[in-house]
Amino acid sequence: MTTDLRIKDFKRIVFFTGAGLSAESGIPTYRGQGGLWHEYDWETYACQKAFDRDPAAVWKFHNMRRAAVAACAPNKAHLAIARCEALLPDVTVVTQNIDGFHPLVGSRNLFELHGSLWRVRCDTCGAIKDNRDLPFEDLRCGKGWWRPDIVWFGDHLREDVIEGASKAISACDLLVSIGTSGVVYPAAQLPRLAQRAGAVTIEINPEPTPMSDAYEVCLRMGASEAMALLCQGLDV
Ligand code: APR
């Protein structure tokens, strides 16, 4: 399927991104073929209960993920999204991804719904810090543990992040969803705000998802190919 829609013809654009956006960078998605959760049980490595039970094992898993992401690079689709923000007056990125590739390529108007592999926080004293040193070794923060500043299954999303993302999506005239299976809530329901607000909505995903029927256009192709198509007419 293709489309005559072009990003340059819209005023308020939101890119809603998932793990599929980084698949072309060599980072495994979570579900589908080769998905991370087929190889690792998130209940052992990526939830608060696991961390309370064995913080060192959870840190070992996250240091492995940090090293894997650090060995990869943002791809053409990440760069095109950042370029759209540089060229157009109102572009927002709402991502479920924790790989840090959007800020790495210059996306600034950004909501990281599920946090970042490159930030840590202490739930004892509330401190948060950026850190990219590999592997992350000073695991203790005073009386508590530094934990990855990631929204694990069962965690609440930060109020300010979900509010800001919802506001941008409710006000956009174009929402482009890229590389998400649309099965993890509350993130998965966000595109519905754009649909309810009458925005044009596009799904970029080689596979159909449970949310596909709510999108106006479904581009069954990879992120870079689809962004090259949608960005025609822009110096991206
Ligand atoms: N271009 C676009 N989409 C792609 C590509 C590609 N090159 N390759 C794969 N995809 C699609 C897959 O078809 C799939 O629908 O990306 C989607 C990835 O889905 P998931 O692995 O479920 O990732 P995501 O939707 O981001 O997961 C949401 O689940 O585990 C939690 O917190 C984690 O943020 C994550 C959330």
| CATH-level-2 architecture of the largest domain | 3-Layer(aba) Sandwich
- Small ligands present: adenosine-5-diphosphoribose
The percentage helix is: 25-40%
Any low-confidence stretches, pLDDT <50, length ≥5? Answer: none
Q: Helix-strand pattern, N to C? A: EHHHHHEHEEEEEHEHEEH
Please state the CA-atom Rg, rounded to the nearest Å. Answer: 18 Å
The fraction of residues assigned to DSSP E strands is: 15-25%
CATH class of the largest domain: Alpha Beta
CATH superfamily of the largest domain: TPP-binding domain
According to DSSP, the number of beta strands is 10
Outline type: globular
Strand order of the largest sheet: 3-2-1-8-9-10
Count up the helices.
9
Class of secondary structure makeup = alpha/beta
Largest sheet: 6 strands, parallel
Any idea how many domains?
A: 2
User: Under CATH, the topology of the largest domain is which?
Assistant: Rossmann fold
Q: Mean pLDDT across all residues, rounded?
A: 96
Distance between the termini: 22 Å
